[in-house]
Q: What sequence folds into this?
């Protein structure tokens, strides 16, 4: 049974007819104006009271903001929104918005115009960086001798990489304020204690050693005490590649695991760990990076005759267990305070 549309008097299944429904339904609701706050230094945007990083350009940021502010009727299907931006100066735009979609089997269209204002304000992160803000210092040092420049270079890369990763995950304080070359190592000035701890732990895992942390009260602001944390990464006395003499055996340092030092004996080729105390007491007799190429002259079960690359004389040295050798083979040899050794 057909009913009558109360608005136009035409035929209707129930209540308003489709034509009157289309005429009276608001398919899109637009604000008159929106404001977009962008940091002029890093491009972050202020979103619902919180800064968040963005790699988008200004055009994309404005469109994203408009999409969030425009409301579309919930029954609309196959919705398409077209936005045309018209600049009205460096910080003002007018957006022409056109909507199309399907509503109860009928194609509908709607248009609106929104004014866009772009405000530029330095974000919290950039304000802190420019204000020399920091919460912690990661000190990288080595026992008894300065760290190698290659180790310090890698420590710098670790710090920068972790800061970038933390920022990418949304940590606004994940920044490196400065990295200073100081006597005996480097100081990494960090935006947050959390980042500093992460850097210190990662460097210690990479090179071995221990981390000591101390906290210092540096002032008071708004009734709250302000603390700064110093994280000392004390690298082990030994470094990877050192050739050492310990417990009657010549060994090469090949790595670290916590406070233990991984070594390979240069006579039997055995890999094992020595303790922190043993590492501190070990005699450093060479550096494997200074090994030179040589040639095997002759071999027996326990001794190898090689050509000394410095004197060009033949020299006898211990044959490392398990090393396949034959006359004419090329090997790496290292002069140490305890004689010459073949390296694995």
A:
């Amino acid at each position: 049974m057909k009913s009558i549309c109360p608005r136009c008097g035409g035929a209707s299944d129930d209540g308003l007819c489709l034509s009157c429904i289309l005429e009276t339904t608001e398919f899109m609701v637009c604000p008159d104006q929106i404001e977009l706050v962008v940091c002029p230094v890093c491009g972050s945007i202020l979103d619902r009271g919180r800064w968040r990083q963005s790699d988008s350009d200004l055009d994309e940021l404005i469109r994203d903001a408009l999409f969030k502010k425009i409301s579309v009727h919930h029954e609309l299907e196959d919705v398409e929104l077209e936005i045309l931006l018209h600049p009205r100066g460096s910080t003002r735009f007018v957006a022409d918005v056109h909507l199309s979609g399907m509503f109860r089997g009928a194609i509908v269209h709607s248009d609106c115009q929104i004014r866009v204002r772009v405000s530029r304000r330095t974000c919290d992160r950039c304000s802190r960086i420019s204000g020399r803000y920091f919460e912690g210092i990661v000190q990288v040092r080595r026992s008894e001798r300065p760290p190698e420049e290659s180790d310090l270079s890698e420590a710098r890369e670790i710090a920068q990489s972790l800061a970038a990763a933390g920022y990418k995950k949304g940590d606004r304080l994940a920044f490196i304020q400065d990295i200073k070359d100081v006597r005996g190592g480097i100081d990494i000035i960090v935006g947050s204690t959390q980042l500093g701890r992460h850097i210190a732990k990662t460097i210690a895992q990479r090179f071995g050693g221990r981390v000591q942390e101390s906290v210092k009260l540096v002032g008071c602001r708004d009734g709250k005490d302000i603390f700064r944390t110093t994280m000392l990464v004390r690298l082990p006395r030994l470094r990877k590649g050192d050739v050492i003499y310990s417990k009657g055996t010549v060994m090469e340092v090949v790595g670290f695991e916590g406070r233990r030092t991984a070594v390979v004996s240069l006579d039997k080729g055995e890999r094992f760990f020595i303790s922190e105390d043993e590492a501190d007491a070990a005699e450093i007799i060479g550096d494997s990076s200074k090994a030179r190429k040589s040639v095997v002259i002759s071999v027996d079960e326990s001794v190898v005759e090689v050509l000394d690359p410095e004197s060009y004389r033949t020299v006898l040295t211990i044959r490392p267990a398990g090393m396949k050798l034959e006359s004419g083979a090329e090997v790496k040899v290292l002069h140490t305070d305890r004689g010459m050794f073949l390296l694995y």
Q: What stands out?
A: The mean pLDDT is 91.
